[in-house]
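pasting for ref
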Amino acid sequence: MKWTRFLLLATLQVPLSVAIPGLSQEQEEWLESVTHSNVSTSWPLLSSNQSINLLKNIRNFQNITEIANYPYYQAVELWYSDKNRTKILRYDDVGDGAAWTGLHLASMVHEYAVTQDPSVMDRIWGTLEALDMMTACTGKLGYLPRFVGLASDPAYAAYYPNYTGGTFRCIAPYEDYIWLGHTSRDMYDGVSFGLANSWVWLPSNATIRRKVKMLVERITDSLRKDYMWIISPKDQFTNPLPLFSATWRKLALTVNYEKYKDMEAAYILDFYAAYEFEMKISSIHDSTYFPNELDVEEVYVLAVLEDDESRKNDLLKRFTEIAVNNAFHFQPGFAAFYLSAFPNTSTYMVPQGVLQGGLYDYPAAPDWDRYVDQSQNPKYMPHYDSDHSEYALMIRDRPPTTYFWQRNPTTLKGGDACCLQRKHLDLLLAYWMGRTSGFIMGE
């Protein structure tokens, strides 16, 4: 396996930013009614032409990001010298690399389930191999670092000396690599999401299943040894929470019940503690909104793996509260997860509209980072406070961010001038999950 995996960026063919026709007036009004919690009509489904336009935007973003944003098959963002991509100045958001790598794995799994494209399967395998290397290179088998990259990589070397969570040299045979420490639960959440989707959506691929099983066992064995705490080989500690522990216990029970059946009682205790205290989302105006995304990822993993009817119904109840009762958050990612976990739900109409309409409203590629200030836009008045609208913004009007669905949807200001290339996983993952669940049409 080659871990240097770089792209000759000078040869990268980047599509021009071409605006696609917008939402119809009826669709626009329907989405606005969602943000104000007064939906009274059915969602006007995307037309065939709109579905084609949406897929074109997906492909344009993938052409830009699929290789460049995934050195070592791990997720980063890229600062360029200019919009011609003359030179990469440095990687960015590397400290959350493992979390986004897990979501990218899930996105590719759903894409492959739709397209059966061998090149997508190659990238899935490369990502699983990367996770294999990451969980073996620190000196503690099963510990998941935030990112692993070549010490000599100029774009990485421009980042990691300023990382405050600890940078460490890998053990043999990976001595040329530097790993980032002080891993949080977020990294494990993203990776569990990717591994669970690989298990569920690629059931007939024995090679993938063997690799996923090995990775789940390796990571779970490390966690179980430390009583579900995340403890690095450098004695950095992160405590577990019930939803975190339940997710990993259920994943382990799914891939190898005989080995982990002694964890089942602890799983059930964790499940009901999480059900009472964690399986919900915070206020739309919460200043620390991002954990909502992580919790929804974990609820999704439990929902697709759970085989007990009572607990499955509990998960449906909580997910309905998130994606239907709180649809005014206007987060297409939450809708995508809900519809993927429960495709036969009778309460699909509003989440489908949020999913289709929100993704169609997503800016067109390449969508460079830019500064946005909607504080004077009358469409988003009244304000909740100086930084937030009372209601969720349309997707196209939101300040750019790494992943829209973890950002407070009422945020009025943010972004940078130039020239940050983001991964756009928020768009890509939600789209392909919408395709596999049947709530987004193809060409």
